[in-house]
Amino acid sequence: MLSSNGIKAIFFDLDGTLRHSVPSGGEVFNDYVARLGLRVNPEDRIRAIRWEHLYWASSADLRDDLLAHSGDTENFWVEYSRRRLIALGASPAWAVELSPKVSAHMGEFYKPDSIVPDDVRRALTELKQAGYFMAVLSNRDKPFQETLESHGISEFFSFSLAGGEVDSFKPDPGLFEHALKRAGLSAQEAVYVGDNYFADVVGSRRAGLRPVLYDPDIIFPEADCATIRSFDELKSVLKSI
Description:
The chain is of the alpha/beta class. It folds into two domains: 9-21 and 114-238, HAD superfamily/HAD-like (Rossmann fold, 3-Layer(aba) Sandwich), CATH 3.40.50.1000; 24-109. Helix content is 48%, strand content 14%. It contains eleven helices and eight strands. The strands form two sheets. A six-stranded parallel β-sheet has the order 5-4-1-6-7-8. Strands 2-3 form a two-stranded antiparallel ribbon. Helix 10 links the parallel strand 6 (190-194) and strand 7 (210-214).
């Protein structure tokens, strides 16, 4: 049974929300640079994760790096590693010196598993049975329907939409507006669930949707929106927003 607050649809982010890489790239990155001699404390790790979220939220730094290294994937990831080392607390000189080595290590040894957690599957089943319209919106460049199918969750969603398909990336509201038009719904009837405050919460609000931040590790304790640490909490949160 749908909520009594007018919510008819739930749109989801994909990577880091429905689908997870295990272990995360950040964990492997941090462990390796610690072996290289950089002291990384819990505060440094949180700061670097927040930086990652901001960087991938279609930031100016990301746009600059994509432009500067167009067609040069290797140097793009070297520059990314340099930026992330500084976010972890490395000196600029240390980051410049070690970033090629760190980037090469990640390219060679980072081979994560791709999973959909059990709490996500439980929630999707319950929400589908309750009658919610559901779709997946991602900042990926290309369509990702095959990813949903390979993880066994495509049946839950009416459609999926990549930012690259409509030339609009979160936090730009355009991606959400395209999805609402395709669903035949108003923004007031939809919720967006994602793990990146800067892309998902800011972007969905710009388009008029109600955001829910998935934040299992409390990366954004100051978040000014509904927050869940497990998908088991989502159904009850939908009744209160």
